[in-house]
TrEMBL record:
InterPro entries: LMW_PTPase, Ptyr_pPase, Ptyr_pPase_sf, Tyr_phospatase_low_mol_wt. One of its GO terms (molecular function) is protein tyrosine phosphatase activity. The active site is at C8, R14, D122. Pfam families: LMWPc. This is Low molecular weight protein-tyrosine-phosphatase. It comes from Anaerolinea thermophila (strain DSM 14523 / JCM 11388 / NBRC 100420 / UNI-1). SMART domains: LMWPc. SUPFAM superfamilies: Phosphotyrosine protein phosphatases I. Its EC number is 3.1.3.48. Residues 2-148 form the Phosphotyrosine protein phosphatase I domain. The lineage of its organism: Bacteria, Bacillati, Chloroflexota, Anaerolineae, Anaerolineales.
Amino acid sequence: MPAVLFVCTANICRSPMAAALFSARLRADGLRPEEWLVDSAGTWAHDGQAASQNAVLAMQKRGLDLRSHRSKTVSSYLLEMFDLILVMEPGHKEALQVEFPHLAERIYLLTEMVGEHLPVEDPFGASLEEYEKTAAEIDAYLEKGMPRILALVGFHGKVSSG
């Protein structure tokens, strides 16, 4: 089962939105999200927190539901379950690669999936419009980066063009 983990800081904004958007993109590409392990976590998360209200609202506007999301902190046990770990900021990548060097080759910036090395800025505390911009940015990186994501998880199935 291919497995992708999205990581941000508190696991209440960017990474839960990214996980929801990725599952939706799998479905849009003719893949079956239920045959994948897709999750999110945070480098400095407090376990059990709900997604931020604006993250929930931004996803609702896209027909996605984050109401049941609860934050969790990265751990070696959690990270080892995933083929690919996509982080939002260079600092996340550096911290995880230093703390978990045996998993360093699985850890990438989301933006590296399209050949860039840019952060996805944290919208925490910002307006709903900023969350919507962040969601659109994440979704664009996922859409353009899907071929590389599929290659990195070792997926060899068919993807529809739909």
